[in-house]
Amino acid sequence: MGQPDDDNSFLGHVFPPLPPDDQVVAERGSDAARSPSPEERAELERRAAEQAERERVEAEQRAAEAERARIEAERRAAEQAERDRAEAARLEAERVEAEERRKAQLVRERAVVEEAVKRSSLVWVATDTAPGGRAVWHVALDGRLYLVTGGDEQPDPGLVPDGAATVIVRSKDTGGRLVSLHVAVSELTADDDDWTAATTELAKARLNLPEAETASSRWADRSTYRLFRLSPTDEPLAEGPREHSAASLRATPVPTPATTAGRKPWVVHQRGGSGSALS
Predict the structure, then answer these.
(1) Which of 177, 252, 253, 279 is least surrounded by CB atoms within 10 angstroms?
(2) Which option is the CATH number for 121-232: 3.30.450.20, 3.20.20.100, 2.30.110.10, 3.40.50.300?
């Protein structure tokens, strides 16, 4: 057997030469671009249809759940709104009932106060400077109290115009405390519409009033006298009948220059006795 010409020719007979790289890529590309068979296409379409159906069912389920949640939220909101309306109606009814009771109570209290101040010409006025109350004489007109202070009249109990005070009314029958009410304080002047009526009644009620016919003009001097109007407020009574405080309510007597009379003169015979008359 003859000797081969060279080693390369020998290897070429045993191992055929490899194709170039671009030929391999082209062959692979042709395999990838190969159209699927009808069976493969049908399988792919079936799988795609199943996936689409699952997504559609899931979307419908989510939409149904969202709709149920919306309906439930609307139901709860409607029930809450109905409860709120019922509660508001109940509170309004209670408010109206309480207001009616308050008005009725106020009417009863006003009737008691008006009757008490008409029957007693003396009341006690409690202020910041006289918290225990100071006795003052007054007149009552149209549910309000009028009093005059200063000069040769009674002392001012510490009333402040546009302020507040508490009036303690006594029982005409027992002389004890009857009711206490809150009043608004205002100062009366000669320009007020109720000046004439108030001063006329004050002049009538004033004991031992000198020159009563000129009292109104004298009281108009605000540098000496002050007239006050005490108007009951809409507040509940500070102290109603049979609702008195259990405290002692003792107060220090008001300082005054008044004093007791001197000793009575000594007499020989008993006053009002049955002895014989002196000759």
Answers:
(1) 279
(2) 2.30.110.10
